[in-house]
């Protein structure tokens, strides 16, 4: 049986984290919880084969896999760590790993009825996955049906959390399982009250040794002010999702400190090409030239985040196009473009969710003002949910906000996945560009790196400058307020890392 | 007339004047931003006279926003109050006139709205239908309809069974004449009193809905919306929220005082 | 009595069916839970699959009758978010909400009624004025502003009480105070005017003319009569408590039914919204019936009749 | 107008019941408010209708006016049957039959001027041009003794007598053939009662309309009526000349009623009725008055007496004893004296 | 000194004077009638005397009860008087009974207060009182609520309640208005019998001269907050001294004899706030002269125990000049 935090470990601290949401889906299984919100919690209780250096350079690291190697373009061999225990005390074997990637959990068609959406999510995350072959008690082989340059990266995705086969099969149904998965992380789930509190306790049998904290409690506190108040009144040790404007307020009290900064997520605003006005690329170019990114970053973010060079990340390595420029903020140019486009003040709807992203409403209002200043007639429409953003015919959909993240050092997954022929904008006829489509395919199938870099450069040029599909705003940033006496480093992501290496107080 | 009532009336007149002349008197356009000048202090806290009530998180002039918000909130409150009264009175009269099954249907509707707290209803409707000013005002208009319906029905029935309405009916008057020319003017004072009671409730409801993110949406602004968006700045820039909160509270207070006073004046049973 | 109760029950049932139908139609007509629950980036096939799984692809009337059939067999459906039985989801939250509303209700009554009675008995005195200003203000301040001020004072500044969460009974104090104050203010106003009205009645003069001391006149004759209009207000206050819970639970991160409703609405978790609304509606109907019965007990004239002029 | 020999108003065997919810059990009981009333009225004649509260006087008045349909029986006005309430024929007939109410303040709309309200029947029935209407209103107001400046006043600012005059003016403005007065004086002060009675008598003399005068004030009824009908529990129990009925009432109830009239210097015997006023929801068998009747016999308990002329003097009365069909149980002389 | 003596009582509600100096005395065992049109101050007189007016009323003068002034007396002295020595029956019985208490309890309350009766003894006494005032089936009716009784029965409950304290003076404020003639007769009989049996004094307030004359030995006629004429009841009818009294008499239709045109008083009672200068009745009086508009006449003795406040009132010798109209009343006889 597992040994949970017991008497001898009471000297270890327990922390409370005030979060906006614990889980959007009320489940703790990442196949159903696909949001940023879930990212924050799952690394504490679950682990994947290949981990990610969240607080460092985002590089891939061994986790439940000790090593891996490509057998060929479509096959990877993975050595599994020995002596890993699940929270129910079972020892992890290759069987469990194969099961975690198997039909009962992901694909359907096994003995358990799998929710439709789970199958779709799995297929999207692992588009060419074929099967996992058990080579030994601690060795597996992964077969893919096509070439995938980033297959290893995919294994570090959250849906690849390794689960206990026995525990899974004991659950009454797939959804029952999803609310209380049995995994291998440093903390075990002791209590989960949806929309209220998630309590994790130290799992002392963890392969890394005893975790540094006796308990981690995520308390759901949707109101920003309430989260800050909870921290200030001593009810919490961490308060997540602090808007930049509140940083000064929190730090006015020396007992607290706000940490964090840009994360691996870029905010951008996208256009609907099938809108009659936006069909004209000149109008879209005008839009891109009248967005004052620096002002937004300076004012709303107090300069605590940065403007990326287009929709790419420096960890792309060779694929990072260092000289790529965003369309400059130039109202005169925008006006000239509009004149050239023959734009006559036709209204363009701009649908915005109420602060789904940090400072989203404020950003949208700033953009609207800037657009208005160059003569664009933007109709700001606040909507409730994503469904309402995509509602209606082409003429009712104009502009909306989006964000993009990348976890792999290659633009293909991110860009082609989002904007290529397989992406949802393409499918819903929101933005299509023949040349871009062809290049996108080439980027996915070519193995010639130089060619791929050239292709990628051209793609960026098309989608951001010539036939803009979106305009990049800035990197997202995540700020966490915490007790000043705690030494803890935030990740470049929403992930909160409470492992031994990231804790001392 | 008690001093308090005089003050209340003066305040409400002031609010009305502000609402009517909003465009003329607001120093800036209410959406005009000055992002280099965010969260600047109001004069009474040591800020500059350029922004008397300071600026908000986007550097917009709080005074100008307040003025526009007053106009919007009064518009909503008046619009909703009138819609509620018209629907309620009409249904009340219909029930009183036809009696029988029609009356039972109206009463069932009344039960229906008693069975579901308005905020819950609003939450469902607004969240699901999205938000537009017209829908919003109509929805708030439903807030007190059943109260008016009850009053209208009760008074119409009692007027019809004995008294002036029976007399007029006996003269051969048509229902239009009966309800429009006789019953409505006679119950108007009661209705007005209950409208003054509903008015602050609507202002509060609007702010409650804004708090839940369902009220008037940007770029439009209302008092509740200002409070809702300003609440995060309660400790860092309290003026953003406190100015509209003060106006909400004082206006609700004044209308309530006036309503209570009117009721006491118009209700002969209170000596 | 029996016939009265039966007809009252029948109307109650009709209004509940209306509530359910209304909510059903509003919910289904106005937005697709699939997109909301599946998230922004969900591929269309996933959304289609989701719709199919939850029967959202069928004509509205089919869904409607399926829903009613299910309701009558005691099956209110499952949450689209986590697949749990909605009855369990809702019932899990009920104790939290009751933990706020019941004490708040008692605060309303224990503070509001005595304050109103006292103010009426000392009409136009300084205390009367103070009580009334407090009462009108209490009614005019939006509850979330009050809540935030209370938190700033008692949690952040003084550090006496926790500001959010649900760890101990101390967490409940501020939310209860917030909800209690508004209701007490309302009740004080109504009690005062009810009391004033009663004090102006002839039978109060009769009681005095009998030679009863004033205190006995108030206790024995005025209070029970003043209770009659006050009870109707109490009936309405229940609705206010439920609505108040929605806001207060949000401010204090109190995981009650109110927040469940807000969250479920935001997530388009139709079955849960429906179950919550149904539960609230049934509570309200039941509460209104209790008020009716109480009314009959307090006012013998009303026995067997619905209240004539419930405002 | 179709004149002829027909009576102005004929009501035959009118009956009207109401359903009433009573008590905690919510049982509905039937209240037979009017139970077979027949009466007739010719032009220029006044019929007084007296009886204690709740005996069905007002209901009779409403039935006669056609404001409510009778359950049984029929009303003929000027030779034609009463149309159904609410129809256009019915509405048109309103100009020929009008009503004066007990409480003038309640019968007037507090928010309209007297002039507007007096003119209202003309507006409703679209009689004359607006100039003619103004003229007619002025004339009628003068007729009832209101001054022209009263036209601009609101009811509250008039005295009780003036208000009742306004109500009467409104009723007379269309020159009705029938005026029904339902307790037109009982809400008024003694001094004003006299004014109104005088006025009604003068008006009838001038216009020759038929008048149904409902009251429980026997003095007033004697003053104004040509014939009196005494009602008890939904039935007419005695009918005749006022002086005859008041000086020599034949029905024991009428006797009690007359003896109860207080007047100065009264020293003589008074019939004190035993028991409670009757409950129309629970009508006694036989003669409805028998439980309170000092002379009731066994017959009275079982047989319903019919209203018919007494053999001795032709007075119409519904009493077994008065018709000599039963011997009085107690001599009427045994009345208590105080 | 009389048992109760009201001296120069005046009452004002704000600026409007409801009573303008009332002087009235009631001897033990005597029945006094108080008549006048609506609003002339009949009720207010006795409400003021017992301190039952709302605080908004300004009351001046004195009310002597057995030689002690009870006007403005402290509550402790007033409470035993109310209901114990002076009881009052209010005008509108339905509104004057507590709708939510059973009538037995309401009557019993007075018994407990003034006669210290409780429990079964009180119950028995309540039943006796209810029997006495003629409420049938008293044993069951004690559990009834006011709304379950008729107006006449409620009026009798009021009377029983007033009698429960065995008062020395009963003030009956219009005990019969809004009642049927037959019931009215019953109640008047009841009051007369009670007074005869217990020797209690009574003030009967009414606007119906007929009602008052039958029951009372002395009558005071009120007009606009004043007593304008006071006389033994026979005298009032034979020698009405004040034109207002004559007006009241003239507007009563005769029951017998030829139908004459009624002589009505023109105009209406002046509003309390707009009292004419001089004689308040002058604007309605057919005798009024310029003098009347200037002088507010004081009561003038016309004969022993007959006074009238009119400048034209002439003193007379008793039973010398019957006034016109007397004949009509004199001829009236009970008809059978
Ligand atoms: N609309 C009604 N519904 C139920 N019962 C009614 C209705 N109208 C009259 N009644 C009943 O019918 C009976 C006769 O009523 P009606 O008003 O005709 O009496 P009335 O002789 O005019 O009495 P009053 O002198 O009090 O005016 C009463 O018992 C009354 O309660
Ligand atoms: N509480 C009060 N506030 C103000 N004015 C009052 C009050 N009570 C009585 N009055 C006024 O005092 C005057 C005398 O009233 P009172 O009740 O004594 O008349 P009344 O002679 O009893 O008449 P009625 O025959 O109608 O009972 C009236 O003008 C009345 O309006
Ligand atoms: Mg009647
Ligand atoms: Mg009176």
TrEMBL record, chain B:
Major subcellular location class: membrane
InterPro entries noted in UniProt: BP-dependent_transpt_permease (IPR050366), MetI-like (IPR000515), MetI-like_sf (IPR035906)
Transmembrane residue ranges: 74-98, 118-145, 191-216, 236-258
Domain named ABC transmembrane type-1: residues: 70-259
Keywords: Cell membrane, Membrane, Transmembrane, Transmembrane helix, Transport
UniProt membrane topology term: Multi-pass membrane protein
PANTHER family named among the record's database cross-references: OLIGOPEPTIDE TRANSPORT SYSTEM PERMEASE PROTEIN APPC, PEPTIDE ABC TRANSPORTER PERMEASE PROTEIN
Protein known as: ABC transporter permease
UniProtKB/TrEMBL annotation, chain C:
CDD domains registered for this protein in UniProt: TM_PBP2
Domain ABC transmembrane type-1, first and last residues per copy: 94-291
Keyword Transmembrane helix: yes
Annotated membrane topology: Multi-pass membrane protein
Keywords in alphabetical order: Cell membrane, Membrane, Transmembrane, Transmembrane helix, Transport
Entries under InterPro entries matching the protein: BPD_transp_1_N (IPR045621), MetI-like (IPR000515), MetI-like_sf (IPR035906)
Subcellular location field: Cell membrane
TM spans (from-to): 12-31, 98-121, 133-160, 172-190, 230-252, 272-298
PROSITE patterns: ABC_TM1 (PS50928)
Family per record: Belongs to the binding-protein-dependent transport system permease family.
PANTHER family the record matches: DIPEPTIDE TRANSPORT SYSTEM PERMEASE PROTEIN DPPB-RELATED
Descriptive protein name: ABC transporter permease
Species of the source: Rhizobium oryzicola
UniProtKB/TrEMBL annotation, chain D:
Primary location: membrane
Compartments (UniProt record): Cell inner membrane
GO molecular function: ATP binding
Keyword vocabulary terms for this entry: ATP-binding, Nucleotide-binding, Transport
Record's keyword annotation contains Transport: yes
Membrane topology annotation: Peripheral membrane protein
Pfam family, one: oligo_HPY
Domain named ABC transporter: residues: 9-258
InterPro entries: AAA+_ATPase, ABC_transp_ATP-bind, ABC_transporter-like_ATP-bd, ABC_transporter-like_CS, Oligopep_ABC_C, P-loop_NTPase
Family under the similarity heading: Belongs to the ABC transporter superfamily.
Stated name of the protein: ATP-binding cassette domain-containing protein
Source organism: Rhizobium oryzicola
UniProtKB/TrEMBL annotation, chain E:
Pfam families (alphabetical): ABC_tran, oligo_HPY
SMART domains attached to this UniProt entry: AAA (SM00382)
Record carries keyword Cell membrane: yes
Record membrane topology: Peripheral membrane protein
Domain called ABC transporter: residue spans: 4-249
Alphabetical keyword list: ATP-binding, Cell membrane, Membrane, Nucleotide-binding, Transport
GO molecular function: ATP binding
InterPro entries: AAA+_ATPase, ABC_Ni/Peptide_Import, ABC_transporter-like_ATP-bd, Oligopep_ABC_C, P-loop_NTPase
Principal location listed in the UniProt entry: membrane
Record family assignment: Belongs to the ABC transporter superfamily.
Name of this protein: ABC transporter ATP-binding protein
């Amino acid at each position: 049986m597992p040994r949970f935090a017991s008497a001898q470990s009471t000297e270890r601290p327990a922390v409370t984290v005030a979060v906006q949401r614990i889980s959007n889906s009320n489940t703790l299984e990442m196949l159903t919880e696909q949001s940023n919100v879930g990212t924050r919690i799952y690394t504490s209780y679950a682990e994947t084969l290949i981990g990610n250096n969240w607080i460092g350079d985002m590089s891939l690291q061994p986790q439940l896999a000790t090593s891996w190697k490509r057998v060929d373009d479509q096959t990877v061999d993975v050595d599994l760590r020995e002596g890993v225990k699940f929270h129910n005390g079972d020892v992890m074997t290759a069987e469990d790993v194969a099961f975690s990637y198997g039909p009962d959990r992901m694909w359907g068609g096994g003995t358990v009825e799998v929710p439709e959406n789970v199958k779709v999510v799995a297929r999207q995350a692992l588009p060419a996955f074929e099967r996992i072959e058990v080579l030994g008690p601690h060795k597996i082989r992964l077969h893919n049906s096509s070439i995938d340059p980033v297959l290893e990266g995919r294994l570090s995705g959250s849906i690849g959390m390794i689960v206990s086969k026995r525990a899974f099969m004991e659950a009454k149904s797939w959804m029952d399982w999803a609310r209380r998965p049995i995994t291998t992380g440093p903390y075990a789930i002791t209590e989960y009250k949806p929309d209220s509190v998630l309590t994790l306790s130290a799992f002392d049998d963890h392969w890394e040794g005893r975790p540094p904290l006796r308990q981690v409690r995520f308390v759901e506190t949707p109101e920003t002010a309430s989260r800050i108040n909870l921290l200030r009144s001593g009810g919490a040790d961490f308060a997540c999702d602090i808007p930049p404007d509140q940083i000064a307020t929190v730090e006015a009290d020396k007992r607290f400190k706000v940490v964090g900064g840009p994360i691996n997520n870029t905010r951008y605003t996208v256009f609907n090409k099938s809108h009659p006005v936006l069909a004209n690329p000149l109008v879209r170019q005008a839009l891109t030239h009248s967005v004052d990114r620096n002002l937004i970053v300076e004012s709303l973010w107090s300069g605590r985040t940065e403007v990326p060079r287009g929709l790419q990340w420096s960890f792309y390595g060779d694929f990072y196009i260092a000289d790529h420029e965003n369309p400059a903020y130039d109202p005169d140019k925008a006006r000239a473009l509009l004149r050239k486009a023959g734009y006559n003040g036709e209204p363009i709807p701009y649908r915005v969710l109420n602060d789904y992203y940090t400072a989203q409403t404020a950003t949208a209002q700033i953009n609207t003002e800037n657009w208005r200043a160059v003569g664009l007639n933007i109709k700001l429409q606040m909507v409730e949910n994503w469904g309402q953003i995509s509602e209606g015919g082409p003429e009712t959909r104009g502009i909306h906000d989006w964000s993009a993240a990348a976890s792999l050092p290659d633009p293909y997954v991110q860009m082609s996945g989002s904007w290529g022929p397989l992406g949802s904008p393409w499918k819903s006829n929101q933005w299509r560009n023949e040349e871009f489509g062809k290049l996108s395919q080439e980027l996915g199938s070519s193995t010639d790196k130089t060619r791929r870099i050239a292709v990628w450069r051209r793609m960026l040029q098309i989608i951001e400058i010539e036939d803009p599909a979106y305009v990049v705003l800035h990197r997202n940033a995540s700020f966490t307020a915490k007790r000043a006496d705690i030494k803890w480093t935030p990740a470049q992501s929403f992930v909160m890392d409470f492992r031994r290496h990231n804790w001392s107080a | 007339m008690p001093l308090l009532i005089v003050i209340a009336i003066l305040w409400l007149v002031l609010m009305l004047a502000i609402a009517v002349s909003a465009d003329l008197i607001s120093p800036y356009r209410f959406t005009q931003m000055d992002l280099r000048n965010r969260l600047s202090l109001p004069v009474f806290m040591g800020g500059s006279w350029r922004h008397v009530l300071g600026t908000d998180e986007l550097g917009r002039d709080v005074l100008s926003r307040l003025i526009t918000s007053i106009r919007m909130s009064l518009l909503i409150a008046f619009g909703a109050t009138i819609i509620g009264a018209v629907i309620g009175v009409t249904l009340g009269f219909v029930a009183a006139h036809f009696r029988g099954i029609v009356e039972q249907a109206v009463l069932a509707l009344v039960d229906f709205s008693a069975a579901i707290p308005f905020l819950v209803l609003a939450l469902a409707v607004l969240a699901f239908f999205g938000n537009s000013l017209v829908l919003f005002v109509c929805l708030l208009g439903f807030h007190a309809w059943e109260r008016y319906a009850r009053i209208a029905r009760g008074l119409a029935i009692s007027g019809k069974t004995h008294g002036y309405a029976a007399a007029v009916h006996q003269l051969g008057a048509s229902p239009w004449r009966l309800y429009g020319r006789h019953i409505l003017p006679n119950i108007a004072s009661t209705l007005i009193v209950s409208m003054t009671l509903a008015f602050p409730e609507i202002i509060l409801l609007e702010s409650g809905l804004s708090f839940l993110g369902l009220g008037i949406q940007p770029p439009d602004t209302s008092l509740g919306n200002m409070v809702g968006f300003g609440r995060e700045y309660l400790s860092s820039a309290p003026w953003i929220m406190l100015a509209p909160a003060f106006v909400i509270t004082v206006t609700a207070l004044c209308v309530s005082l006036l309503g209570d006073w009117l009721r006491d004046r118009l209700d002969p049973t209170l000596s | 009595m029996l016939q009265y109760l039966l007809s009252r029950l029948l109307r109650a049932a009709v209004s509940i069916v209306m509530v359910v139908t209304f909510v059903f139609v509003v919910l289904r007509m106005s937005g697709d839970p699939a997109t909301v629950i599946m998230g922004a980036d969900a591929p269309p096939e996933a959304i289609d699959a989701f719709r199919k799984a939850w029967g959202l692809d069928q004509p509205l009337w089919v869904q409607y009758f399926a829903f009613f059939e299910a309701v009558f067999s005691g099956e209110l459906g499952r949450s689209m978010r986590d697949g749990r039985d909605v009855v369990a989801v809702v019932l899990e939250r009920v104790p939290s909400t009751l933990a706020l509303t019941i004490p708040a209700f008692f605060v309303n009554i224990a503070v509001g009624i005595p304050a109103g009675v006292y103010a009426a008995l000392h009409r136009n005195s300084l205390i009367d004025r103070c009580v009334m200003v407090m009462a009108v203000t209490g009614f005019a301040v939006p509850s979330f502003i009050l809540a935030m001020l209370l938190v700033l004072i008692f949690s952040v500044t003084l550090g006496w009480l926790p500001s959010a969460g649900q760890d101990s009974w101390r967490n409940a104090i501020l939310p209860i105070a917030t909800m209690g104050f508004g209701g007490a203010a309302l009740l004080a106003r109504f009690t005062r005017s009810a009391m004033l009205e009663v004090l102006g009645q002839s039978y109060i003069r009769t009681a005095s003319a009998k030679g009863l001391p004033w205190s006995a006149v108030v206790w024995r004759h005025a209070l029970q009569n003043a209770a009659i209009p006050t009870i109707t207000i109490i009936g309405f206050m229940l609705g206010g408590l439920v609505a108040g819970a929605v806001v207060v639970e949000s401010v204090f991160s109190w995981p009650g039914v109110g927040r469940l409703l807000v969250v479920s609405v935001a997530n388009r978790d139709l079955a849960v919204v429906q179950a919550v609304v149904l539960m609230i509606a049934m509570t309200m109907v039941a509460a209104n019936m209790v008020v009716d019965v109480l009314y009959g007990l307090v006012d013998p004239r009303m026995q067997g009749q619905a209240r004539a002029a419930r405002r | 107008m179709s004149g002829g020999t027909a009576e102005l108003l004929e009501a035959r065997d009118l009956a009207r019941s109401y359903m009433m919810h009573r008590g905690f059990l919510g049982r509905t009981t039937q209240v037979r408010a009017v139970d077979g009333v027949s009466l007739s009225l010719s032009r220029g004649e006044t019929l007084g209708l007296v009886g204690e509260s709740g005996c069905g006087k007002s209901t009779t008045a409403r039935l006669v006016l056609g404001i409510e349909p009778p359950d049984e029986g029929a009303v003929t006005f000027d030779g034609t049957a009463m149309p159904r309430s609410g129809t256009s024929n019915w509405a048109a007939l309103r100009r020929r039959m009008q009503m004066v109410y007990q409480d003038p303040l309640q019968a007037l709309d507090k928010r309209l001027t007297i002039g507007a309200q007096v003119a209202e029947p003309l507006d409703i029935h679209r009689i004359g041009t607006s100039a003619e209407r103004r003229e007619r209103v002025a004339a009628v107001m003068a007729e009832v003794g209101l001054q022209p400046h009263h036209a601009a006043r609101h009811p509250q600012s008039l005295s009780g007598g003036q208000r009742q005059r306004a109500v009467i003016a409104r009723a007379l403005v269309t020159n009705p053939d029938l005026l029904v007065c339902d307790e037109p004086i009982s809400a008024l002060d003694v001094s004003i009662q006299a004014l109104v009675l005088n006025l009604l008598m003068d008006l009838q003399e001038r216009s020759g309309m038929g008048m149904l005068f409902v009251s429980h004030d026997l003095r007033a009824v004697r003053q104004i009526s040509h014939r009196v009908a005494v009602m008890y529990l939904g039935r007419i129990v005695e009918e005749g000349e006022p002086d005859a009925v008041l000086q020599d009432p034949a029905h024991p109830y009428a006797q009690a009623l007359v003896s109860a009239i207080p007047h100065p210097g009264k020293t003589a015997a008074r019939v004190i009725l035993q028991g409670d006023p009757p409950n129309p929801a629970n009508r006694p068998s036989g003669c409805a008055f028998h439980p309170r009747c000092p002379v009731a016999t066994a017959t009275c308990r079982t047989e319903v007496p019919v209203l018919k002329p007494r053999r001795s003097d032709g007075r119409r009365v519904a009493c077994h004893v008065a018709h000599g069909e039963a011997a009085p149980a107690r001599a009427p002389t045994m009345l208590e004296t105080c | 000194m009389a048992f109760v003596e009201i001296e120069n009582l005046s009452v004002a509600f704000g600026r409007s004077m409801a009573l303008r100096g009332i002087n009235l005395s009631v001897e033990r065992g005597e029945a006094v009638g108080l008549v006048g049109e609506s609003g002339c101050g009949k009720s207010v007189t006795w409400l003021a005397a017992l301190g039952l007016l709302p605080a908004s009323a300004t009351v001046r003068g004195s009310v002597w009860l057995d030689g002690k002034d009870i006007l403005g007396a402290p509550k402790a002295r007033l409470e035993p008087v109310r209901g114990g020595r002076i009881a009052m029956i209010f005008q509108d019985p339905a509104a004057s009974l507590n709708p939510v208490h059973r009538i037995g309890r309401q009557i019993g309350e007075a018994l407990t207060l003034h006669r210290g009766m409780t429990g079964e003894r009180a119950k028995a006494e309540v039943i006796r009182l209810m029997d006495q005032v003629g409420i049938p089936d008293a044993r069951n009716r004690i559990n009834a609520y006011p709304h379950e009784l008729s107006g006449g029965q409620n009026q009798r409950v009021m009377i029983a309640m007033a009698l429960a304290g065995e008062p020395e003076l009963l003030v009956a404020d219009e005990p019969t208005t809004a009642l049927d003639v037959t019931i009215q007769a019953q109640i008047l009989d009841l009051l007369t019998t009670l007074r005869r049996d217990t020797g209690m004094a009574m003030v009967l307030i009414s606007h119906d001269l007929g009602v008052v004359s039958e029951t009372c030995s002395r009558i005071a006629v009120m007009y606009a907050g004043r007593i304008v004429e006071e006389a033994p009841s026979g005298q009032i009818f034979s020698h009405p001294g004040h034109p207002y009294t004559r007006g009241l008499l003239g507007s009563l239709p005769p029951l017998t004899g030829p139908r004459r045109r009624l002589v009505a008083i023109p105009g209406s009672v002046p509003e309390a706030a707009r009292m004419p200068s001089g004689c308040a009745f002058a604007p309605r009086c057919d005798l009024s002269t310029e003098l009347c508009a200037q002088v507010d006449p004081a009561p003038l003795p016309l004969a022993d125990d007959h006074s009238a406040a009119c400048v034209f009132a002439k003193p007379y010798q008793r039973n010398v000049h019957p006034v016109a109209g007397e004949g009509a009343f004199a001829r009236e006889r009970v008809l059978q």
